[in-house]
Write a structure and sequence with these properties.
The chain has about 675 residues and is mainly β. A hairpin with a 5-residue loop joins strand 30 and strand 31.
Length: about 675
Amino acid sequence: MKLLVTTMLTVLLILGVQADAVNWQHADGPYGGIVFSMFVTSEGTLLSGIWEAGSFRSTDNGQNWSETKLGLCQCFGSVFAESDDGYIFAGNPFGAFRSIDDGQTWELVNDGITQPIIFSIAINSEGVVFAGTATDGIFSSIDNAATWQPANNGLPVTGYPVLFVTHSDVILTASAAGDLFRSLDSGSSWHPVGDEINANSITAIISHPGGRVLAGTNNAGLFYSDDEGASWFPMSGGPADGFIRSLAIAYNDILYMGSKTEGLFRSDDTGSTWLAISSELYYKDIQSVAVNLAEDTFIGTGGGGIYGSTDQGANWDQVNTGLFKTYLQDMAHAQTGDIFAASLFSGLHRSTDNASSWEQVTNGLSSTHLRVIVQSASGVVYLGSRDKGLFRSYDNGLTWSPANNNITDTAVYAIDISPNGGIIIGSDAGRLYYSDNDGDNWSLITIGLTTKFIRAVAIDSSGTFFAGNEEGLFRSTDNGQSWLEINNGLSSTYAYCLEFDEQGILYTGTQGGIFKTVDTGNSWISLVDDNLLYHQVEDIIFTPFGKTLVATQSGVFQSSDFGESWVFLGSGAINFHITSVLYLDDETIIAGTYGSGVYLGRALCGDANSDTSVNIGDAVFIINYAFKGGPAPVPIEAGDANCDVQTNVGDAVFIINYAFKGGPAPCANCL
């Protein structure tokens, strides 16, 4: 055995191999997304467009969703239409697309469209396809989108986000400015109509088989026309604020109307009266509606993903599995071990199993637009929202109540709690508030500050206050009565976060990387190397094993030498906009993304020396541990390259075989 060990050590010192040190996988939730389009194909397949997050497809009535790629990336959602002969068409900012297999695969069909940024798609009974663009008006195709021609005769050449073909083949389109036009000759010419509609913009149009046409607006409610759009009249009912997001009609001629703030409405009498049918839903912003042949109704919400009803809206269930397009702003690890994730659009989510699965928390929360979450040493959890101020929970997030006494701002962007229990919060209006009684009362402490958008706050053990925004960092040593700008050494003054390490050293994440101060902010030292250069740092955490992790707009970076050098964790796997990170004792990294939900990162098995790579050094480390009493991998499972639930010389042999003989790569689930 001694000869084998000596030979192995000699070979390992000569050659090596490196692999990704972190495997990233989507967590099972939190699911959701801003679903601005919903469509049911003739085969019953559901298609959805997610704002800034791509398109999804479900073949089991919404129970499970998978991404379908239309364009260069999943950056934008799509709108959809289907012809009588089974062609499905889609439009998004990458152009027009066509599918002949029920939306499984798509081909780009932009020939003839000058600026193929598609806002809307419609098809008439003759099979002519129409596409409304963002800047160049409307285009039409008579050959199933193989080629396109401009169809702007009588139209201002501008953007057209709304296109609809009535039951009698009249084409209606609305410009982004709210002007309404119609065509009676398959798009050959257009004529302005609808001076009676007094609205900033028209958001949706629907046609009833009986001939009535309805148009929803973003500020003036609903209008109807009984002469194919030639004249229009206001219609009562619907949301009080007049903001209508969507309209749809079922095969039994029931009409549905989605509002921005009051949920979904249904009409059984061509829109003469409307009944609210989603009062129990947490999400009231209904951006899209679709109904299948079985009369199942699906609604896309402004953050909560998709709900389905099989009884015309009497009862609803979330049907979101696989729809991982939540916009997470912050995460917190509670003293109980629970993990909270605050989302900008989909509210608060909680996990009791180390982020493997998630449940939604709604009791007492009147906002779904959340920014920051922090727990005090006494166990009180504080939650800052974008529109309803501050919330507080005494029972680990089960129930919430407002805590806005003396707070005049509705958007709380930053929270920190001092060792003695004092709480400081920052608002988007540039104001800071302080409480020394658990948030029962607040005092304004922004004397001398004229900035806006406070995104970072901190209090050190001596009671010194720090605040950061787009103009840099500020410090107060007199409880917020006066503030001093402390930007010396900062090459980027747009601050996103402030964090103390275990030694009390203060770090800040900025638009241009990470900095630290050892003199209470009098000067700042850059910790940016070539790997972290130009990266926007939005969160910083310090692990028990001496590692520093930062969340950036393009992924997670790690330093094992106190910020002197940085390694990108997750090449090609998690190059998303990361807003927050957490670290578990088993070395699992939890990454919250802006638009892609939560990812779990676990060490690649075989990285025994924790240098973020698997190479000869790990084999040497394992041999030294096994035969010479050297240090053990931390955690011990990190050295288990072959996943036999042991860390021994067999793992070193496994790594050598992988490196020099093309053997299998280290396994992925040793931890």
